[in-house]
Amino acid sequence: MDPQTKTDPFDLLMNAGSSPDIWLFVAGPLAILLVASTVCACFIILRRRREAAAMDIAIAEASRDISTDFSETAASFAEADTRESTPQKSPASVRSAAPADVAEVKATGHLAWLDRLKQGLAKTRQGLASSLEGLLRGKTKLDDELLEKLHAALYRADVGVAVADQLVEHVRKTIGKDNASDEVTVKAALKQGAKELLEGPALIPLQRPDQGPWVILVVGVNGVGKTTTIGKLGAHFLAAEQSVLFAAGDTFRAAAIEQLGVWGERLGIDVVKHKQGADPAAVAYDGVKAAIARKIDVLLIDTAGRLHAKQELMDELGKINRITSRDLPGAPHETWLVIDATTGQNAVQQVSAFSQVVNLTGLIVTKLDGTAKGGVLLNIANQFKLPVRYIGVGEKAADLRQFNPADYADSLF
Length: 413
What we know:
alpha/beta; 2 domains; eight-stranded mixed β-sheet; 16 helices
């Protein structure tokens, strides 16, 4: 092709309006660029819309959870305010027929309870009786050898060295060294010594307010029967014609909330509860507000048992104590530790650990029917000077009873 016939780009641009080739040369790339830009812009817009929609959904869900928490609390306060003007009767008096647990508690008299207690302590008593029988066989007087063997027998019953020393010394003083002795005489001396040891802490009075609900904080490690014990306590208070309210403060375990709810349904007792993982202090606060508004006699607050996280538990219980006293000065009035008698010396360690975390005012000893070491109760009472408020010897509500030092000593020996 002749070079002179070639089209100069500059000439093409200068003559843009006179030739169609000019438009193809210039507008083609521009059109492609425009289409690509439009596609990219649409893609970006769609992606941003999807992100915004996802964000809206997340915000809506979070708002729903928050509003639910606030609505639950507001509803409890509204219900409390509604009931405040109307005195509430005890649930036991509202129902035409009391629950079976409450009826059984009422029907179980003192003699029937003593039988249950003796049956529950049978393993410990039989072990001691067997030891005493072997020690006193062929013996006519109380000598040092006999006292030493008696000390060993008591120690095997988990009474501890200090208590064994005290009981042996009491036997020595009561009977007199080298005086005639037999199994009946030695048992009588041991019963008296155990009774005197337990009576001191038992004389400590309960801290119950003159007005307003009696708030009891129940603590203990998981597995000792803490939540079940709260249910049984509720049955006992109902049997005494007192209104009761539960607060499910163990929000660490969902099972604890559900278990307390089952006891509430079983006994006709309302349960103040939040979701699992909620602040236990908030549950306790709502419980106190509801108990005041409904004129409840007794508020029982369950707590978590994470003793392995001692600092966390200390902070949690400290917060509960501060929160409950805001609207009800002095609350919680009592703090009871539930311990499992079958754990032996481990129960002593639990009392020691919780004493460092919270101001304990009493003990509840459960599962005495499953151990041969019922003497651990003597060890705890002597070491910590804490009153034993209730003891349990079985699964039923009637198997839990207020502690009596004389009955226990008599059943132990």
